[in-house]
């Protein structure tokens, strides 16, 4: 089993849900360059504000994440069907306009 990566297979350090968080915590972009400290500072300030925000509910947040991320990878009708099958509300007109209108 080879541990090499190729152009077709991204490095494990740039894939997965935690890749961005790991890079930010290290202060290093995926290309190996340092992230500007001013950018990191602003990011941390905004994330600290977000961390203090009252949440509306887990299932609402789950649906929002599914829509936001799913719209990048899944066709509108298929995502709508998947949402319905899972018991979530279908896509809202404003979500369709935002994520699927180009």
UniProtKB/TrEMBL annotation:
The organism's place on the tree of life at top rank: Bacteria
Name of this protein: DUF4090 family protein
Origin species: Tumidithrix elongata BACA0141
